[in-house]
Design a protein that fits this description.
alpha/beta, Rossmann fold, 2 domains, 7-stranded mixed β-sheet, 13 helices, 42% helix, globular
């Protein structure tokens, strides 16, 4: 198929439709509203369910109910709206039904602003709801990757009976790039064995789905089942991309837009003869801990770049485990880093700016305080 000039939010919406989406429930919030608007037109055209809910709380619980039928369902929102959905997400995970969530992040905390940020990392990657659970989290860095990962999200959610999240910032949702949409898949006409569909077909009894286990040993068994399933995800679904890593002595780690901007800085540093490479995690959960641990055995140090105050930083530090220095550079509140800012940080660490003393966030704050 030919490539088209597509806006990120609209491309994600159409990719979900072509992946066989049967029902969408959502509530408008900038910077993801175009996604909902696209769904409001296309889903009724195709005879599929679209509901603009009265709130994010309502939307996620509508997703929960529809997911229990085995249908392909999704919602989308942005940072404050995602926070409101956390209880419902926990219910969906506890009931072991698949759903897809798109989070187009904005500046925070609180209502913040509508500018792009990566401030939702902790609540999405480390689970903002209660209980021992994990979300599959996919982080695109381009419109094409957002299309591809949206389709993948539905497949992974169904394979592991969980919630898969496409996590991007507002710049990716709003930007336009050439991208190729997938072919239209047929909508499912059969239901999985676990689905709550009453007495449809040849079933002898109704399936009852719940996240309530009043007997603690039963709840423990459910948690253990979820953790065993997560071990399967960790063994099979870790994804990342590397650039200029063959001879790299320094590694920049960034995801999404921050990783994309960092790649420009890495290219500029390479032109100056600095042996630096980029690792861009595509799955933030499961996170490529083992790969980073192995990199730490052969490189001199790491620079983590994020559009927050250092949330993925802690996962990188956990993977490096003190083997080598880790530095940090972040921009906050919807401010995007520029390539020359990251290049300056690369030059600093290549000139002896690496240290194991103290916390990298504290060193970064001291440098930021000196600039502002």
């Amino acid at each position: 198929m030919a490539r088209e000039l597509l806006k990120g939010n609209e491309a994600i919406a159409e990719a979900a439709i072509r992946a066989g989406l049967q029902a969408y429930f959502g509530y408008p919030i900038t910077p993801q509203t175009e996604l909902l608007e696209w769904m409001s037109k296309r889903m009724p055209e195709l005879g599929r369910a679209f509901v603009q809910a009265e709130s994010e709380l309502a939307a996620i619980n509508m997703v929960y109910g529809a997911a229990c039928t085995g249908a392909r369902v999704m919602t989308s929102s942005s940072s404050p709206g995602i926070s409101l959905m956390m209880e419902g997400i926990s219910y969906i995970i506890g009931t072991e039904v698949p759903a897809v969530l798109v989070d187009v992040m904005r500046g925070g905390p609180g209502l913040g602003n509508i500018a792009p940020a990566q401030s939702d990392y902790n609540q999405i990657v480390h689970g903002g709801g209660h209980g021992d659970y994990h979300l599959i989290v996919l982080a695109p860095a381009s419109v094409q990757e957002a299309v591809d990962l949206t389709v993948l999200a539905f497949d992974l959610a169904e394979k592991y009976r969980t919630v898969a999240v496409v996590l991007l910032d507002g710049s990716l949702g709003q930007m336009m790039e050439p991208a190729e949409l997938p072919p239209m898949r047929p909508v499912k006409t059969t239901f999985p064995e676990w689905a709550a569909t009453g007495m449809m077909g040849k079933r002898e009894k109704r399936n009852i789905l719940t996240s309530i286990y009043l007997n603690p040993p039963d709840e423990e068994q459910t948690n253990l089942r979820l953790l065993r399933r997560w071990q399967e995800v960790e063994a099979s679904e870790i994804r990342f991309k590397e650039y200029f890593m063959d001879d790299a002595r320094y590694v920049v780690v960034g995801f999404g837009s921050a990783g994309r901007v960092a790649l420009s800085a890495v290219r500029a540093a390479r032109a100056e003869g600095i042996p630096v490479g980029l690792l861009r995690p595509v799955t933030l959960s499961p996170f490529p801990y083992e790969h980073i641990r192995k990199l730490a055995q052969r490189v001199e140090g790491f620079l983590v770049v994020e559009m927050n105050a250092g949330q993925m930083l802690e996962d990188v530090r956990l993977a490096v485990a003190g083997q080598k220095p880790v530095e940090f550079y972040g921009r906050l509140g919807g401010v995007m880093p520029f390539p020359d800012e990251i290049l300056s940080e690369i030059q600093r660490i290549a000139s002896g700016g690496l240290t194991l003393e103290g916390h990298p966030r504290e060193r970064w704050l001291q440098r930021m305080n000196g600039k502002n």
